[in-house]
Structure formats: C-alpha cells, structure tokens
Write a structure and sequence with these properties.
MFS_trans_sf, Growth Hormone, Chain: A, MFS_Transporters, 385 residues, membrane, 2 domains, transmembrane helix, MFS transporter, two-stranded antiparallel ribbon, single chain, 77% helix
C-alpha cells in the first residue's frame, strides 16, 4: 500500500487503541459507582448499561445514512468522539442511577456516530484480500486498550470518579484528533455509496443473513457488555473490584489476540465456516458462564468475546463489498447494539430469578438465553453449503 493510505489506516488503528482506553476506564468506574455508591439494583445497572447501546443502535444507522449524503460528513464522527470528553465529566455530578442512565444515552449517541464511521473507513480503504485481517488488527488494538483501560481503572481506583473521568476525557479528545488526521489522509478512498453494477464487487455472503446472525449473537453475548459484566462477575464469584476488572480485561485481550487467526482463515479459507464456528462458540458461552465457578464463568466470557470479536471483522469485510457499504456497516452496528440492549435487559429482568442448586449452581438469568443460542446454531449451520 502507498504511504498515504498506510498512514491513514495506521492512524485509525491507533484511534481504536486510545478511544477504547477512554471508554474502558470509564465503564467499571461507572458500574461500581452506580451499584455501590448510588445503591442501584441489578436491573437499574442493566438499564444504565443498555441505555448506552440503545442510543448507539439508532445513531449508528443515522450515521450511515448521513454519510451517504456526502463523505465530508465523516468528520462529524471525529467531533462526536471529542464530545464524549464533555459527557463523561457529568458522571461525578450525578446523585441517582437515572441521571447516570441519561448521560449514558448521550455517550451512546456520540459513540454511535463515531465508531461505525471509523470501521467503515478502515474497511473500505483496505484491499479486499486482506480486509478481514486489517479490520481484525483494528479491533485487536481496541482489545489491548481494553485490557490496559481495566488496569488504569484498577490503579486509579483510589483517585475517585472525578479524577478518573479527567483521564478518560483526555483520551477521548486525543482520539478525535487522530480520527481527523486519518480521514484527511484517506479522504479520496471514502466511497459511502457506489452504483450497483453486474460486474461490481459483491458480498460473499447474503447481507440479510449476516444481519440475522449478528443480531442473535449480540443478544447472547450481551452479558459481557458494559457495566453488568463487572457486577455479575464480582457478585457471583465474590471477587474484589480491581481483580474483577483486570481478569475481564485479560479475557478480552486473549479473545482478541486469537480472533486474528479466525480473520486470517476467513481471508484465505472460508468465511462461511468461520461464521459457523463463531456462532457455535457464542451459543455455548452463556451456558458455561451460568455455572458459578471461576473457570466456567471466565471460559464463558472468553468464548463470548472470542466469537463476537472474530465475527466483527468478517461481517465488516462482507458488508464493505455491498454497494451501500456505509449504510450496511452502520446498519450492522445498529442491529448489534439494539440486540445487545434487548439481551442486557433480558439479563437484568431475569437476574431476580436467582439460582438453580444441584451438583453445580446455575444462574437462571444466563440460562434464559438458551432459545437464542439454539436459534444461532440453526442460522450458523444454514450458512455452510
């Protein structure tokens, strides 16, 4: 790749790193602040967590439609990223979980504009033959940052929420500036909408089927999304907050590192078979996490994260070949976020069901995902010829 194109892609990968540090530092801080300081119920924590993904779901689609009206609007995504720096400063001022949920809605709206645009640009600017792997590297750097962000939270826990949010704000501003520079370098390659021609680039998989699998997978792995994960692991295993954050960070890091090989196989072997593999792992993950022992809980979290992080670059590669690629990538982000909202709310409502005691102790809230797991396996099998 020529130097200008390579520099733009590398800057976007860097933005995934800095932006995720900002987000991941804030997530456990807000989770434990809402649960322990504001005394919110688990359902309230779920609403806080899922309000973010609900807002992100709608703004992701809106961002894709907006980008089709002119590629110069891609810079709005960078401005939205910097807007997060102001939003997180409001969290220390809250006194109820409902106020926290309102700020989470604002964060979700801003993130829904910024991240899907970045994913679209990196996918469309990368040559097709290496697209899944480059996109996987983009997400992998986000996962490295997720691990580091959890460590930053653990080491700054005594500073208090207000000072932690200042660190988060600094990284949000830096990320927005990096995005601006990247979009300027890649501007000529940004093509949100192309004419549909018989000899044009076509998706290797049916886009509608990809969206269905993305939706089912997002519902199932919602228990690994946001604040509810930290609270569930800490309470289910009786684990202290800092240790919970670092172990969840390591699970995400290892899952992302291994997901690169899934993307490599999708590029050089079979996208269909990798979709099946990730579907099976995602379907199994809540059933393992329901067993209240440390090995099974973390194995379930690992499988959910590995499946989701492996599927993301594959789905972006497929949808980047669609003639309305910006809307397609914004759409899959929207579908996944809306589905994550539904899955998170299901977990929050079902959490009050308690546990099933026998040879092992099972969390009934996670067993509630079984019908969706079965549906995902059926859809995954249908993708293989």
């Amino acid at each position: 790749m020529e130097s200008r194109r390579l520099a733009g892609i590398l800057l976007l990968i860097l933005s995934a790193f800095t932006g995720t540090i900002a987000f991941r530092l804030a997530t456990p801080a807000i989770a434990f602040y809402t649960r322990d300081i504001l005394r919110a119920s688990m359902l309230s924590v779920s609403i806080v967590s899922m309000s973010f993904v609900l807002a992100r779901a709608f703004s992701s689609v809106f961002g894709g439609l907006m980008l089709e009206r002119g590629k110069r609007l891609v810079y709005i995504g960078a401005v939205a990223m910097m807007g997060n720096a102001l939003a997180v400063q409001l969290y220390p001022l809250t006194s109820t979980w409902f106020q926290v949920a309102g700020i989470k809605l604002l964060n979700g709206f801003l993130n829904g504009l910024s991240w899907p645009m970045a994913q679209f640009v990196i996918a469309i600017a990368t040559p097709k033959e290496i697209r899944a792997r480059v996109t996987a590297v983009y997400f992998f750097f986000g996962s490295i940052a997720s691990l580091l962000g959890n460590y930053v939270y653990a080491y700054t826990i005594d500073l208090g929420l207000a000072k932690q949010m200042w660190i988060s704000s600094a990284f949000f501003v830096l990320t927005g500036l990096i995005m601006v520079a990247s979009y300027a370098l890649l501007y000529e390659r940004i093509t949100p909408k192309r004419k549909k021609t018989p000899d044009g680039e076509k998706p290797s998989l049916e886009p509608k089927r990809v969206l269905i699998i993305a939706s089912l997978m997002a519902i199932i792995v919602a228990f690994t999304s946001g604040e509810i994960t930290y609270v569930y692991v800490s309470e289910a295993l009786g684990m202290e907050k800092a240790r919970t954050a670092t172990l969840i960070g390591w699970a995400g890091f290892l899952a992302a590192m291994l997901s690169y090989f899934a993307s490599w196989l999708a590029d050089v072997r079979s996208e269909r078979r990798m979709v099946l593999l990730t579907s099976l792992m995602a379907a199994l993950s809540p059933l393992l996490a329901a067993v209240k022992t440390a090995p099974t809980v973390f194995l379930g979290i690992f499988l959910a994260l590995f499946a989701f992080q492996s599927f993301r670059p594959i789905s972006r590669k497929v949808l980047a070949s669609y003639h309305r690629s910006s809307l397609a990538i914004g759409g899959v982000n929207g579908v996944q976020n809306l589905s994550t909202f539904l899955g998170g709310m299901l977990f929050g409502f079902a959490y009050s069901l308690g546990e099933l005691h026998g040879v092992v102790t099972l969390n009934l809230a996670l067993l509630a995902f079984l019908p969706f797991s079965i549906g995902l396996v059926v859809e995954g099998l249908s993708m293989v010829d």
